[in-house]
């Protein structure tokens, strides 16, 4: 695809973007806020030189947390600017960092908007988390001699095939990045095949993410509300269609299932499913006292409590993996020392899943029936849960260190800029 055609198609779509925001705002009103930022209009101006980090949503923001903490500590004369695409990512940034960082929405990838963004903030270095390839943004930064690093970069086989169809557009864009710091050898190889020339394998930043303070204590408090003697399964970051499959898997079993949908706009939808199935349930946000002993499901409708849910559980299922969503982050569960069940669709976290399974921290399941059998195995076998939990902790600890490597790289690029 020629660059001009890419830009032309984006301009064709641009008039529909307000309608898309309005539609999303019906379910999630936060989409109706800060509209102007999405078109490159900003009222806030930085007071210091800027280090810019783009974190699309919740997962990328949490993964960047250790890096942000170190940048704030080691580079106090810089301002840390976080850009997001989703309101949940922005809310997570506020929760984690408060007013120690600045935050705005990244604009749509049309020239006038990204040029306004680049000129307004004039970052000294851009750090783009994972696989956010916006080619007009890359071009704008390149034109202003702003170096960009694709950080924690991952490229699934499926995504690589899609990008391959764009030909020279992707090749030229990747060549204008200062560095692609890939999560694994496989990711690096795919980026190279697409045309990246400056690459390295740096590991996965998400292994360095630490649980919020007091997560264990909060988990014990939650456990007291759920029932200390009950076996508790946390099904985390579930996606559309998976809750029904999970309910089929636990039907008739004496396990308390905590369903935590990936997206908050689906909380009411999942509650309607629980009502339809005539299940005894409570919503997390309505829990003030110990829940009734006949409760079958807890709907995790709170934000920022995933580590607390894990701490309160006996074992975990990590969603986005029973259906073709590519899987969600299992590293958080591993860092809390929990046995992990995960489906077969894990291309977004292929390397982490492979490592967790090989070390005995996780069991990968094929379908609902297989998931049910493994739930029963872990329910009935505390020693198996303990063994897998220890393996999860060892797996998590052995994979840390990426943040330190990234800080060294960032220091080198900032020195060049100076």
Describe the secondary structure blueprint for this structure.
Blueprint: H1 3-13, H2 17-27, E1 50-54, H3 58-74, E2 79-84, H4 87-97, E3 102-105, H5 111-121, E4 125-129, H6 135-143, E5 148-153, H7 157-164, H8 168-175, E6 179-182, H9 185-194, E7 199-201, H10 215-226, E8 232-238, H11 242-250, E9 256-261, H12 267-276, E10 281-283, E11 297-299, H13 306-312, E12 315-318, H14 331-335, E13 340-342, H15 350-358, E14 362-364, H16 368-379, H17 382-398, H18 402-417
Parallel strand pairs: 1-2, 1-4, 2-3, 4-5, 5-6, 6-7, 8-9, 8-12, 9-11, 10-11, 12-13, 13-14
Helix pairs in contact: 3-4, 3-18, 5-6, 10-13, 11-16
Descriptive report:
With 418 residues, this protein is of the alpha/beta class. The protein has 2 domains: 3-204 and 401-417, Rossmann fold, CATH 3.40.50.11720; 215-398, Rossmann fold. Helices cover 46% and strands 15% of the residues. It contains 18 helices and 14 strands. The chain has helices spanning 3-13, 17-27, 58-74, 87-97, 111-121, 135-143, 157-164, 168-175, 185-194, 215-226, 242-250, 267-276, 306-312, 331-335, 350-358, 368-379, 382-398, 402-417, and strands at residues 50-54, 79-84, 102-105, 125-129, 148-153, 179-182, 199-201, 232-238, 256-261, 281-283, 297-299, 315-318, 340-342, 362-364. Strands 3-2-1-4-5-6-7 form a 7-stranded parallel beta sheet, sandwiched between helices. Strand 4, helix 6 and strand 5 form a beta-alpha-beta unit. Helix 3 (58-74) runs parallel beside helix 4 (87-97), helix 3 (58-74) crosses helix 18 (402-417) and helix 10 (215-226) crosses helix 13 (306-312). The longest helix has 17 residues, at 58-74. The mean pLDDT is 94.
